[in-house]
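Saturday, quiet lab. Running sequence design on the structure tokens for the scaffold JK sent over.
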């Protein structure tokens, strides 16, 4: 079983963007371009986009008149075409090498094809279990994705450690009943919360 911070866990569940790799340059470019395309202010959108599915952001910021499917296709094409500046979080590759392939999974708000492309861009391995945007009915902050990943790994979610970096992802992790480790400095940690700058 994986051991982290002197505690044994049944499995580790990783968010991807901001937790395993930093895709923020791409996220900023693509969502700013989309905001310009539909005529809205990119500022509030960029503040809210971390860890949230694209379809939920389109609904929230784009208005009811937009064709959700068409906008999702535009975003998917733009994101798949841009991997410039994506980097792995320090230490993540070595950390993953130490793990049993049956003891970790990825739970991402990105579509599966995009997740595979970004992981490949930074030469990180694909897990046996990946729960992507199209695999859940409700995106983060709903815990559905984490619960599904634990079930697919055959472990109790209460014995899992989730690595997350965004408010939506952290809320989903806590709601699932798992332990949560906050990666990076995007979110201000509360008392007693486990925070790591990276995996090194």
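Result came back. Writing it out in full:
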């Amino acid at each position: 079983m994986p051991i982290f911070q002197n505690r044994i866990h049944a499995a580790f569940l990783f968010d991807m963007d901001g937790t395993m790799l930093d895709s923020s340059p791409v996220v900023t470019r693509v969502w700013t371009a989309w905001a310009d395309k539909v005529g809205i202010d990119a500022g509030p959108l960029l503040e809210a986009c971390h860890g949230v599915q694209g379809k939920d952001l389109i609904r929230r910021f784009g208005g009811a008149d937009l064709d959700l499917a068409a906008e999702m296709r535009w975003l998917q094409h733009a994101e798949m075409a841009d991997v410039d500046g994506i980097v792995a979080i320090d230490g993540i590759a070595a950390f993953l090498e130490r793990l049993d392939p049956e003891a970790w999974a990825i739970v991402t708000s990105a579509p599966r094809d995009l997740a595979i492309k970004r992981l490949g861009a930074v030469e990180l391995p694909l897990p046996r279990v990946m729960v992507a945007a199209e695999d859940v009915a409700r995106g983060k902050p709903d815990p559905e994705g984490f619960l599904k990943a634990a079930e697919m790994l055959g472990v109790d979610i209460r014995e899992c450690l989730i690595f997350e970096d965004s408010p939506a992802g952290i809320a989903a992790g806590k709601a699932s009943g798992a332990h949560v480790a906050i990666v990076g400095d995007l979110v201000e940690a509360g008392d007693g919360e486990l925070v790591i700058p990276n995996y090194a």
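Notes for JK: The chain has two domains: 3-23+86-196, 24-80. The first helix runs from residue 24 to 38. Ask whether to fix the surface positions before the next round.
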